[in-house]
Amino acid sequence: LSRNRLSEIPVEACHFVSLESLNLYQNCIRYIPEAVLNLQALTFLNISRNQLSTLPVHLCNLPLKVLIASNNKLVSLPEEIGHLRHLTELDVSCNEIQTVPSQIGNLEALRDFNVRRNHLIRLPEELAEVPLIRLDFSCNKVTAIPVCYRNLRHLQVITLENNPLQSPPAQICIKGKIHIFKYLNIQACKIAPDLPDFERRPLGFGSHEELYSGRPYGALDSGFNSVDSGDKRWSGNEGSPVKPIAVRGFQKTEDMKRYSHQNRVPVEPSSVLSLPPSHNRLSHSDLELHQRREQLVECTRREAQLAALQYEEEKIRTKQIQRDAVLDFV
After folding, report:
1. Which of 141, 142, 235, 309 could form a disulfide with 163 if both were Cys (CB 3.0 to 4.6 A apart)?
2. Using an 8 Å Cβ cutoff, are 88 and 109 in contact?
């Protein structure tokens, strides 16, 4: 019945009890009769571009899934809007709505809410409890997005231009949805700084970030230059008889030598076997015995240092073998 000059819904249309879709687009309708309650199979109703000043309460008792009431003269929505439990799409754009009732939080099936070009000053916090996918509140007078909107995990599209937004600021809003929700997460942490970490961590909201929750954003683990790169990932392809040894980084042999030289503790003969004062007058054979012991300890220490240096060099060579095998494989 669209594009006519109807001033009200024809009574005959209210007798079609099996009617599922009714299109009254672009008429002159000012009033919807209560007889519309007979249409208990109606799921789609388009009453846009008419002259409705209020949304009749009895519309909220229909099993509607889609309600389009844009381009009218609505100044508010009835509290009974929360009765539309099956509603998935609500379009009340291009009206004169100043407030949205809190009962909109009862619309547990709502996926698309369009309140564009109205006179809204604030957004209802209860909307955060709705599984919205698309939200359009552009061309209003909204100054702040409630922090609780970070709970809109299914939201994919948010349109908010032409609002005097201060929170988030404009430079955040123009960057898009991801930056908006990061800002809301940060604000939530500031509001409740004493919450435990698991309560204050940022929430996902249906974006690609959730795919990389276990690693830095966009990072791909190539298996190269990591601790277990040789042992677990390439051991079957390198073809080297040497068992891979995990090292933390590549270092040159000169660096190893310099490190071992700088950290070497000088060993004085007196620090190895210090003699008490009562033994100052020892025989010549006893002194020779002590000297031989000191020489033996010094020799053992040097051998240990040499073995450690050889071990580090072997690790470097093994790492180089692994690296060459990985490059050959790639």
Report:
1. 142
2. yes
Using alpha carbons only, give the angle 139, 145, 146 rounded to the nearest 5 degrees.
145
Which residues, in sequence order, are CB contacts of 132 under 8 Å at separation 6+? 110, 111, 112, 113, 152, 154, 155
Closest CA to 45 of 82, 107, 78, 58: 58
Say how many C-beta atoms besides its own lie within 10 A of residue 204's C-beta. Answer: 14
> How confident is the model over 291-327, as pLDDT tens digits?
888 888 888 888 888 888 888 888 888 888 888 888 8
260: left (phi over 0), alpha (psi -120 to 50) or beta: alpha
pLDDT tens column, 201-244: 444 444 433 333 333 333 333 333 333 333 433 433 445 444 44
Going along the chain from its start, the domains and CATH numbers come out as 11-167 (3.80.10.10)
CA distance 324 to 330: 10
186: exposed, middle or buried (C-beta count within 10 Å: 0-12, 13-18, 19+)? middle
Backbone angles phi, psi at 15, to 5 degrees: -95, -5
How confident is the model over 143-183, as pLDDT tens digits? 999 999 999 999 999 999 999 999 898 888 888 888 898 88
| Whole-angstrom distance, CA of residue 298 vs CA of residue 266 | 10
First to last CA, the chain: 67
Structure tokens at 256: 């190893």
247 exposure class (CB count in 10 Å sphere: 0-12, 13-18, 19+) = middle
DSSP 7: S
Classify the C-alpha dihedral 272-276-279-280 as positive or negative.
positive
What are the distances in angstroms from CA 19 to CA 31, 42, 58, 266? 20, 6, 17, 98
